[in-house]
Amino acid sequence: MDIAEQIKKVRKEKGLSQQEVADRLSMNRVQYNRIETGKSDPTMNILRGLSLFWKLMWLSFLKLIKTVQK
Q1: CB 3.0-4.6 Å disulfide test: which of 1, 8, 31, 32 passes with 36?
Q2: Among the residues of the chain, which ranges form H helices?
């Protein structure tokens, strides 16, 4: 599972729409969709914002990303 798939999975587990997440990250839904579909890579700021929004510990989130990238 790549980073885009993992981000989408967590969003769905939290019961959130793409628009809700995009609003929280101060970006538009199209930009956020590009991250979830793998057309754009998330910046570290976006990843940090996601971890805070989803109430995941930052280090745990980074470990999850590292695991996904292997």
Answers
A1: 8
A2: 3-13, 18-24, 29-36, 44-53, 58-69
Contact 49, 24 (CB under 8 A): yes
Q: Which CATH architecture has domain 3-64?
A: Orthogonal Bundle (1.10)
Q: Which DSSP letter does residue 42 get?
A: P
Domain ranges for the chain, please list them: 3-64
Q: Please state the pTM of the whole predicted model.
A: 0.77
Half-sphere exposure of 66 (CA within 13 A, CB side): 6
Alpha carbons 70 and 27: distance in angstroms, whole number? 28
